[in-house]
């Protein structure tokens, strides 16, 4: 015990007398299978068709999987990769694999094969657990070379299909050999539980390795958030891919709280999400912003009057949901659209939005102004903004700089990657995002540092322009990217997906003129059929910039097409 540094005092500090109980994912499972054993996990298997079982059934299968993996030769510390959709079997790996001290590596199934090959080889996966429809992809990966993988396990309902994968095993056969009474072992809470890779806007993806401690703390933080409202009586639809940031840690939080968990299954479409809300009385869901927009458009185009009034909470992420989307869901169904701010490196949540009670008496538009911000730091998360010289900026809502964060669930380094030294400095993580923080602690994200537009020496926020454009009633989606300019070096280009093809560039320019300085307003408004998305549903600005650099505006229109709306004012 160390001496306390007070003058004239010789006392020493006193050790606390608490049990040193490790924070392990198995502790969440222990609680749920006893308290919420009769609550359900529901997976869509077809239009209006569902697989259902209880958390008690789930826990038995998790224990079967854990014991079978040990018998199968998986050792503590081994990486077990998954390439799978959101369904109950994939969810079983969330606790079965880390439950024995192995590390679950959820592989983004939307990446190009060469990127997936890189992930598997960099992580050194020893076993791949895959969905049946992913077999052709994995056969291609084997041909490319994934030498550390020594076995394949296929999830599905029928017998094993013909495949060149070897040795290959059926998931259900593996579980049949397991012990449903197997006791999950205890080990250090800092043991790796899972790993995900960043979506690689530049260079190779970077690996983030989560500890049991980090994931338990993050689940507890999400469980206590009032606007997320994850409680035992909720029916929660997990749309965010389970390969992306552990499904935003929502599956763990639902299990912790005993909420009914709904999983969309294989190859879901926008209409499937609408039907699941209607069929199952879904009360909350989390998804990319594009999903919320697609569901709205599906309802508007449908000849059926969908009753989605059960849906009280819709968490939309990946980018800020527009005010128009927030208002539509509120006015049509009374659904509260909430947003946050997170990153793979933070397990993933950094901030979550809720309106403080001391601000709740503001008028409606002021409340929406608050809700358009990325929210306040969640418990245990610290955040600061630094200027270009490294000086800390005030929380005045105006001073713009780089966001730096630290918490018990923020990565201290990337997995075997030299780029750690660029982002993890002095116990803080540089997010690469730029913005401000207001006096009430609400984070205002202005842009990724690489997406800011510097025109004539002045900064322009593409995010602010996008939010304003998507508030226009004739705009479905919009993104803004920088393009080279001979005089000003960079200028903003707006790519717009209209909801009404009568919209013109002049109309959008006038719409922005009341909100921004003249030099902020894009010179070009390109009306397009679609905006390319990244593997996690964000607007792919990197691809748009590359298309422009390759062939100018024709390069973009050739890739994503023009609508019949007037393209340029």
Provide the CATH topology of the largest domain: Rossmann fold
CATH architecture grouping of the largest domain: 3-Layer(aba) Sandwich
Within the largest sheet, what's the order of strands? 2-1-11-10-12-13-14
Q: Can you count the beta strands?
A: 27
The value of Rg in angstroms is: 24 Å
**Tertiary shape:** globular
The parts where pLDDT drops under 50 for at least 5 residues are 565-569
Oligomer: single chain
Structural class of the helix and strand makeup? alpha/beta
| Distance linking N and C termini | 73 Å
Task: Give the strand content.
Answer: 15-25%
Q: What's the CATH superfamily of the largest domain, by name?
A: ANL, N-terminal domain
Tally the helices: what do you get? 17
Report the top-level CATH class of the largest domain: Alpha Beta
Give the count of structural domains: 3
- Largest sheet, strands/sense/barrel: 7 strands, mixed
Average pLDDT, rounded to a whole number, is: 91
Helix content: 25-40%
């Amino acid at each position: 015990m160390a001496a306390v540094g007070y003058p004239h005092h010789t006392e020493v500090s006193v050790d606390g007398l608490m049990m040193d109980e490790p924070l392990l994912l198995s502790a969440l499972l222990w609680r749920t299978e006893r308290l919420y054993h009769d609550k359900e996990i529901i997976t869509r298997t077809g239009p209006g068709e569902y697989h259902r079982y209880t958390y008690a059934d789930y826990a038995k299968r998790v224990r079967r999987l854990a014991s079978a993996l040990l018998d199968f030769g998986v050792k503590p510390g081994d990486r077990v990769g998954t390439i799978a959709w959101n369904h109950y079997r994939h969810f079983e790996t969330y606790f079965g694999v880390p439950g024995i001290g192995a590390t679950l590596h959820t592989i983004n199934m939307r990446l190009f094969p060469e990127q997936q090959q890189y992930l598997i080889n960099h992580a050194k996966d020893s076993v791949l657990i895959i969905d049946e429809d992913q077999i052709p992809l994995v056969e291609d990966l084997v041909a490319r070379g994934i030498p550390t993988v020594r076995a394949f396990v296929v999830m599905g309902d029928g017998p094993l299909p013909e495949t060149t994968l070897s040795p290959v095993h059926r998931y259900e056969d593996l579980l049949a050999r397991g012990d449903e009474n197997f006791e999950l072992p205890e080990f250090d809470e800092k043991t790796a539980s899972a790993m995900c890779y960043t979506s690689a806007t530049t260079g190779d993806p970077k690996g983030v390795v989560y500890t049991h401690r980090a994931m338990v703390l993050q689940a507890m933080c999400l469980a206590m958030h009032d606007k997320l409202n994850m409680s035992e009586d909720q029916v929660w639809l997990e749309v965010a891919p389970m390969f992306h940031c552990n499904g935003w840690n929502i599956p763990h939080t639902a299990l912790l709280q005993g909420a009914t968990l709904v999983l969309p299954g294989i190859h879901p479409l926008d209409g499937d999400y609408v039907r699941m809300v209607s069929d199952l009385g879904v009360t909350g869901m989390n998804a990319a912003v594009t999903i919320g927009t697609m569901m709205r458009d599906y309802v508007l185009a449908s000849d059926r009057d969908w009753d989605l009034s059960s849906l009280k909470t819709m968490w939309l992420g990946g980018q800020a949901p527009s005010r128009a989307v927030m208002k539509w869901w509120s006015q049509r169904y009374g659904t509260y659209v909430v947003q946050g701010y997170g990153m793979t490196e933070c397990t993933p949540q950094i901030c979550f939005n809720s309106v403080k009670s001391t601000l709740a008496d503001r008028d409606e538009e002021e409340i929406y102004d608050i809700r358009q911000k990325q929210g306040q730091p969640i418990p245990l998360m610290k955040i600061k903004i630094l200027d270009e010289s490294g000086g800390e900026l005030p929380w005045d809502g105006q001073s713009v700089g780089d966001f730096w964060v630290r918490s018990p669930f923020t990565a201290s380094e990337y997995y075997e990657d030299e780029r750690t030294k660029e982002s993890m400095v002095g116990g803080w993580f540089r997010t690469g995002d730029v913005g401000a923080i207001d006096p009430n602690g609400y984070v205002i994200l202005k842009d990724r540092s690489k997406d800011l537009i510097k025109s004539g020496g002045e900064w322009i926020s593409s995010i602010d322009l996008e939010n304003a454009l998507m508030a226009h009633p004739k705009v479905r989606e919009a993104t803004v990217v920088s393009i080279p300019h001979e005089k000003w070096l960079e200028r903003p280009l707006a790519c717009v997906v209209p909801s009404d093809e009568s919209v013109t560039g002049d109309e959008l320019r006038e719409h922005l003129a009341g909100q921004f300085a003249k030099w902020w307003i894009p010179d070009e408004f390109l009306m397009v059929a679609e905006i390319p998305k990244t593997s996690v549903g964000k607007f792919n600005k990197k691809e748009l910039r590359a298309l422009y650099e390759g062939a100018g505006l024709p390069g973009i229109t050739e890739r994503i097409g023009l609508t019949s709306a007037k393209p340029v004012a």
